[in-house]
Amino acid sequence: MTAKIIDGKKVSDKIRAEIKLKVKERIEEGKRPPGLAVILIGNDPASQVYVGHKRKACQEIGIYSRSYDLPIQTTQHELITLIGELNDDSEIDGILVQLPLPEHLDASLVIEQIHPDKDVDGFHPINVGRLALRIPALRPCTPFGVMRLLESINESFYGRHAVVVGASNIVGRPMMLELLLAGCTVTVCHRFTKNTPELVAQGDIVVAAVGKPGLVKGEWIKPGATVIDVGVNRLENGKLTGDVEFDKAAERAAWITPVPGGVGPMTVAMLMQNTLNACNKHQF
Q1: 93, 98, 113, 118: which one is catalytic?
Q2: Successive 10-residue mean pLDDT values, the chain, 284 residues
Q3: Is 98 a catalytic residue?
Q4: What is the pTM of this model?
Q5: For the chain, where are the alpha helices, taking DSSP H only?
């Protein structure tokens, strides 16, 4: 068996085109465009690249983007004060604080200061709680994007065994909630799991989100499974690779995402979707 490739770039381009059209319709109706504030603290190269992608997407789609590039010495009080101002700003529908933050800043506390209705990353405890209670509002972007990828291949969910490898707050835990909401039976493997290979081998759907290159071996994959590789790891030779042993997994899976070009483009697309959704909720 040779797996079919799930093209995240193609799916994300379609979503972005739909959002662009809806933004255009808003403006033609005399409404303002959605507004996104992006806060970057320090000069971490990877964060600068990610923020650049988000700002470029806003420009292409027609979303008003406001940038706050703050020095690494920014204090917790200064950051929370800025977030408070943006919470009250009627031109801003979404507030994104690029993670990770410098060590002297408390990310959990910072995220909790963002108004839940403007939390377009979907990390606020209220938004994660709404997802857990089956009343989702703004959803964490990467898991939300994974679900759209699965829908694009007409993946079935009811009764399917989904195995999530990784239990981070950003991907693993909300991914579990998304798959559970869709009707899957879900297993989560983490660093204390003793029989990860055996559990992965049971997965009809496998989502790997650990950040360790090649952690999920190809022989672990159940024949005919759908494999979503969220991991993005840069090797010493500069090549990007995922958490799954791609070539060997592709020999067994029915569908698989590549790295790069799989989940990555979806995260930005769903950020744009969340920003539009937040704007529509405000209705002005």
Answers
A1: 98
A2: 94 98 96 97 90 95 97 97 98 96 96 98 98 97 98 97 97 98 98 97 98 97 98 91 97 97 97 97 68
A3: yes
A4: 0.95
A5: 8-28, 45-61, 76-87, 107-113, 125-132, 141-152, 172-182, 196-200, 246-250, 264-282
